Request: fold
Amino acid sequence: MSRFYITTAIDYVNGRPHLGHAYEKVLADAIARRHRQKGDATFYLTGTDEHGQKIAHAAAAAGKTPTAFVDELSQTFVSAWKSLDVQYDQFIRTTDRKHHLAVQELFRRLKDALSPKTGQPVLYEESYEGLYCEGCEGFKTEKDLDEEGRCPEHKVKPREVKETNFFFRLSEYDEALLKHLEAHPDFIWPDYRRLEVMNVIKGGLQDISVSRPNLTWGIPLPEEIEGGEGHVAYVWADALLNYLSAIGWPERKYSLWWMAKNKDVGGPGAARQDEFKDLDGQGRPGAAWAGTKEVYYTNAFHLIGKDISRFHCILWPALLLAAGVPLPRQVYIHGFIYARGERMSKSLGTGADPVEMTKAFGADALRFYLLDSFPTGRDGEFTVEQFVEHVNTHLANKLGNLASRTTTLVNKNFAGKAPAAWNPDAFTSDDAKAGFGALLATAATTATESPKAWEELRINDALEHVWNVVERANEFVDRTKPWEIAKDEARRDELATVLNALLETLRLVAIWAWPVMPAKCEALWGVLGLPGTPGQQKDTDAQPRFGPGDEHALGESQILFPRIDLKSIAGA
Ligand code: MSP
Reply:
């Protein structure tokens, strides 16, 4: 059994959840469910990022106090994830008291840490003049901007600010970070993202402001920091800490999820805790020891979007090194879902509302579309037409049709019970034999290839394997024409064999597709009259067991995957 700790980015609550947010949370949910299904001890963390200038301004614009505003908005994320069947273990809010204390502890540690190259305090105060983009919550240099001097992400001109800030000596962490990235090529995934980050580091890092004066909406620096009165933590130094504060840091119990023993590590990219000794002088190494001589490995898996990779792959590990905390196991950077070429975000006024879509089409149609139609991690273009086409083809026409054909035939010919006979030798036509062989072979391939694809986070590939089996099963029906066989009493065994093969196919599909479509697969499981749930089935149960039925009664039939009529949602 492995331990698996998965986190998503925590969303800004300056607007309601959009499809991009939903994509990330659903992706993390499917990965977490897959780990739970394998029997791994799994902890899935998500939440909301509630401090910073952007939120303070959004609250003011709404005529609300920041507290009232974030309470209301964060609730819209909680309920969106509920409607999408996102089963997290904890929802953290950066306004939580425990988080507040952890951020202050980070600053205390930074205050005592010395920089790796010159041995100077990593935290220092300096007056600063720069361009601040509120959308990014980050400072920009001229070369980061487009020809019109705007932030290319948010299409607004950054504001000129002049203030005295506390800086973190990030510029001295380049060697340590490169060394870690070279030793752990899986630390940033996919690989081309790792190369992008390495180029940024090689281009030179600049010290970064980690406090903001004149802002009240944030976490005050702890009083131990001289001159820190009136400063709040920079929103990124605050937000990133959520991954630790949620699991109990700075108390030692955080290592339960942050670290794992060798064989309990939940995936690639892990580093031995004692490797961080080699990065000595980065701060306070050793502070994170789990209190035993046993060797531990890093185990946190961060799932984030491509726009925030530098914060997670450069600033975050450097802060951790300075604070004496081992680095995460892996940062997985996913792409963006675009709507008609524009980013879906409230500030640009575009976007399909995931909650409205869920109400109209159900959580699983949207989950399936998001995870099946875009190669995992790559950018994708959302259109309503493609969504409808995808759901109709793969769910209504392929899986839905297979389920309804199968149950109708079993109900009609075997009084709704899984038939007892099994005799593949009864197939006389070459067509039937070929169809049967193809179905069994594809199921066997999927039983090995689908878990492999999940391991490598190629979820669309895993689903493609599963739908190959669905297609072979539908072809098998077309080739054997069971409704014809049913007319001939002498061919009962042949009919029973066809239907048992189809029932077994549906059983497997319900298990395999469950992490992506939990509710529909559970409903299908009920229709098949099987005990327990597909989520409880282990990988040994996900192996093909083609053979005679046990005459158990199927559940009540239902239309699991209705067709969507594009005309009925015109204007959606
Ligand atoms: N609050 C920060 C993250 C702090 S994590 C310590 C933030 N919030 S966000 O609301 O702007 O974005 C939250 C997540 O959603 C990020 O991982 C971001 O990349 C992702 N996405 C935002 N728009 C997206 C799409 N259009 N498509 C896919 N993911 C997108 O950044």
Remarks:
- The two ends are 45 Å apart (CA to CA).
- The mean pLDDT is 93.
